[in-house]
Design a protein that fits this description.
The protein has 750 residues and is of the alpha+beta class. The chain folds into 3 domains: 15-23 and 456-574, Aldehyde oxidase/xanthine dehydrogenase, molybdopterin binding domain (Aldehyde Oxidoreductase, domain 4), CATH 3.30.365.10; 31-124 and 185-263, Aldehyde Oxidoreductase, domain 3 (Alpha-Beta Complex), CATH 3.90.1170; 279-447 and 587-741, 2-Layer Sandwich (Aldehyde Oxidoreductase, domain 4), CATH 3.30.365.10. It is built from 19 helices and 28 strands. The N and C termini lie far apart (74 Å). The structure holds dioxothiomolybdenum(VI) ion. Pfam families: Ald_Xan_dh_C, MoCoBD_1, MoCoBD_2.
Length: 750
């Protein structure tokens, strides 16, 4: 049956409000009697607070002051392990750790007040790298600085080395990356003994905030209310941190007896909130004489920062993706998240996979070169086929043809002729050109048994006028949630797109459809919207008010009669796992994800060997993500992911000094602008996924995984030198290329 609404690029649901300026972001909101909040943070990376002194020559009586002692419930940001305090009490474990909160009616007085607070510390030695954490000379978390480990074991890796024609080793690393959403973190909180607390804010996961506030404030479920305001970007950066800032605002609001607005400026947001986990990955790979992979040992480590927060789940996704879209007869992956004295690293689009896939796809190019095969041909011989299994022994049941995907990407990018032309021209040119490939996949939905535990619930409601509202906790933050969920409901009910609206996201009135993360909204929540909408039709049909086929006018009339008679018309749908999904959490084996998106990306670059700068000249992004629900939004997701990937590869470097970000401004933390982005050519293959709405799978994170390795592989192709780390800045390329010249010079001399 052909679709009318799904697959069509309808206008964004909240688009008009955004472009006309009527959309309300949290900092647009003003409450009567509202105060402004600010945070006093640690200036040391590790130690003990000896004294907090408020000097006499300051009007402290005008300020509301909150410390850890004012917390009525538990002093934690409740998430997974509950190890992170909401306010440091005695121990300091990272710079920028919140210690004291201040509020005042005049927001301009706050920075002076924050600076006036005098804190004395007993400093302790701190650690700031994966290597220092592994040395364990300082134990800063648990007994061994280790938040979490995983092992995936398939086949028998110990047996592969003796039969190998080649064994190739390599070590790769990736840096931290700031999410750089346009709108910084911010909330407003209100508190009363009768009603409990209400928080309005910029966030991805209202029910995460809800859970954290219950623990912090010692309040029951119905005394905590969380409302999402228009959210200006998130990228994972508003997955866990809003629970912290919401807690701070509520503590201030309770003590003040007034609403409190707490908004970070860019510098505070960059210095204090989460970033992508830095990583180190070691590969050791055995290949036979025909260029077939025999097996591999992968060691994957991420730097979690000072508290556990989400590191275990970020590590999990990175570990499962570490073997990529290849058929490994044997593979063993060891993975570990370690503690350092930096602010906790957190969720960022891709969630561990961009790190491990950068290492894998760089390594694949190095293996190919070692064994004398072109990078595309080596991949072709090893890409997964239907019926084969991933590293976790998940059988690929979808009719995916990765060889075909590879062929199409090579053709679209004119790969083979470019390889030839560049090889001919480069020796004579100052500006050397290169082309690089990355093959990858990204699991959609929560990992393993995650979706079963989440147990998402979605509602659809019809009014007496026959208008329909979708009730979810899945948030819009620019990616298109509102639009695609309304499309799915309209399509299912035979309505116009304009007949369907989203219910405002308020934890007192919408069901918990889970967090807005993990490329799960379109595929998992979208499917539940579809089934809840079908439930509405069933109810009306059972009441004798609807026949087949569903007609819009008949539907509206049926709603009118039903609601007048019964008061309301609502339908709910709860998550049910697709059949044959089995996951063993102890062995880390089985169906890691309900479905994967698959992709081949090709980057073309120019490296200027006088300035050592790199430009990305062309980019082909080809992916299979099931049915495309909204072509413009889907292409936008890919273009945005590629742009972020270009930043991750070539520009965005967090400069740390004793665990503190020192370039926490957009003037010195350099992200790509439109000037630095090539034409991004986006192509989709559409194989409808039977358990997604109208065949859709997840798309949000996938495009973050491939650009960095494709770009660095292209730089290697251009320069003939290997690079192992990102970000890869001109000074890094300079160092390697001039080192090459020295070597050549020495050879000539010898
Ligand atoms: Mo996320 S990186 O918001 O799953």
């Amino acid at each position: 049956m052909s679709q009318r609404v799904v697959g069509v690029s309808v206008p964004r649901k909240e688009g008009a409000a955004k472009v006309t300026g009527t959309a309300k972001y949290v900092d647009d909101m003003v409450f009567p009697g509202m105060l402004y909040g600010a945070t006093v943070r640690s200036t040391i990376a590790r130690g003990k607070i000896l004294d907090i002194h408020l000097p006499d020559d300051f009007p402290w009586h005008e300020f509301v002051i909150v410390s850890a002692r004012d917390i009525p419930g538990r002093n934690i940001v409740s998430l997974i392990l509950d190890d992170q305090p909401c306010l440091a009490d005695r121990a300091i474990n990272h710079s920028e750790e919140p210690i004291l909160l201040l509020a005042h009616p005049d927001r301009h007085l706050l920075s002076t007040a924050v600076a006036a607070v005098q804190i004395t510390y007993d400093c302790l030695p701190s650690i700031h790298s994966i290597e220092e954490s592994e040395l364990r000379q300082e134990i800063i978390w648990g007994t061994d600085n280790t938040f979490k480990t995983y092992t995936i074991d398939k086949g028998n890796v110990d047996e592969v080395w003796k039969d190998a024609a080649w064994i190739v080793e390599g070590e790769y690393s990736t840096g931290a990356q700031e999410q750089l959403y346009i709108e910084n973190n911010g909330v407003i909180a209100q508190y009363s003994e009768a009603e409990g607390c209400t928080v309005w804010g910029s966030m991805q996961c209202p029910f995460y905030v809800h859970k954290a506030l219950m623990a912090l404030m010692g309040l029951p479920e119905d005394k905590v209310r969380v409302i999402q305001t228009e959210t200006g970007g998130a990228f994972g950066g508003k997955e866990e941190y809003p629970s912290m800032i919401a807690g701070h605002a509520v503590l201030l609001a309770k003590k003040a007896g007034h609403p409190v607005k707490l908004i970070y400026d860019r510098m505070e947001d960059m210095a204090a909130t989460t970033k992508r986990h830095p990583s180190r990955t070691r590969h050791r790979t055995a290949v036979d004489k025909d260029g077939k992979l025999l097996g591999s040992e992968i060691d994957f480590v991420i730097d979690g920062g000072a508290y556990a927060t989400l590191s275990s789940v970020v590590l999990s996704r990175g570990t499962i993706h570490a073997g990529g879209p290849y058929c490994w007869p044997s593979i063993r992956i060891h993975a570990k998240a370690v503690a350092t004295n930096t602010p906790p690293h957190g969720a960022f689009r891709g969630f561990g996979a961009p790190q491990s896939l950068f290492a894998l796809e760089r390594h694949m190019d190095r293996v190919a070169r070692t064994i004398g095969l072109p990078p595309d041909e080596f991949r072709r011989r090893n890409l997964l086929k239907q019926g084969e299994t991933t590293a976790t022994q998940q059988e690929i049941r979808e009719p995916i043809d990765l060889q075909h995907l590879l062929d199409r990407a090579l053709k679209l990018s004119d790969y083979h002729s470019k390889v030839k032309i560049f090889a001919e021209k480069n020796p004579k040119e100052r500006k050397k050109k290169g082309i690089g490939i990355a093959a990858f996949m990204h699991g959609a939905g929560f990992t393993g048994s995650g979706e079963r535990y989440l147990n998402a619930l979605v509602g659809v409601e019809a009014t007496v006028q026959g208008d329909v509202r979708v009730m979810v906790s899945s948030t819009e933050f620019g990616q298109g949630t509102n639009t695609i969920l309304c499309q799915i409901a309209a399509e299912t009910l035979g309505l116009e797109y304009s007949d369907v609206q989203m219910a405002p996201i308020d934890t007192t009135s919408v069901p918990n459809s889970g967090p807005t993360v993990a490329s799960r909204t379109a595929m998992i929540v979208g499917k539940l919207v579809q089934s809840a909408a079908l439930g509405l039709l069933q109810t009306l049909t059972a009441a004798g008010l609807l026949g087949e086929p569903v007609d819009r006018d008949v539907f509206r009339e049926a709603c009118r009669i039903y609601v007048q008679q019964f008061g309301a018309l609502k339908s709910y749908s709860r998550y049910q796992a697709p059949p044959n999904i089995f996951w063993d959490d102890t062995k880390y084996q089985g169906e890691a994800y309900p479905a994967f998106g698959w992709a081949i990306y090709v980057a073309e670059v120019t490296v200027d060997t006088a300035t050592y700068s790199v430009t990305v000249d062309d980019f082909v992004a080809l992916q299979e993500v099931g049915k495309v629900l909204h072509p413009i939004l889907a292409a936008g997701q890919i273009e945005g992911g590629v742009a972020q990937g270009i930043g991750y590869a070539l520009y965005e470097k967090v400069v740390w000094k004793q665990g503190r970000m020192v370039n926490n401004q957009m003037t010195n933390y350099i992200m790509p602008t439109s000037q630095d982005i090539p034409p991004i050519r986006v192509y989709f293959e559409e194989i409808p996924y039977p358990y997604g709405p109208y065949g859709a799978k997840g798309i949000g994170e996938l495009p973050m995984d491939g650009p960095a390795p494709a770009i660095v592989n292209a730089i290697v192709n251009a320069t003939g030198r290997d690079f192992y780390s990102i970000p890869l800045l001109p000074e890094d390329i300079f160092a390697t290329l001039t080192e090459a010249r020295h070597e050549i010079a020495e050879e000539v001399l010898a």
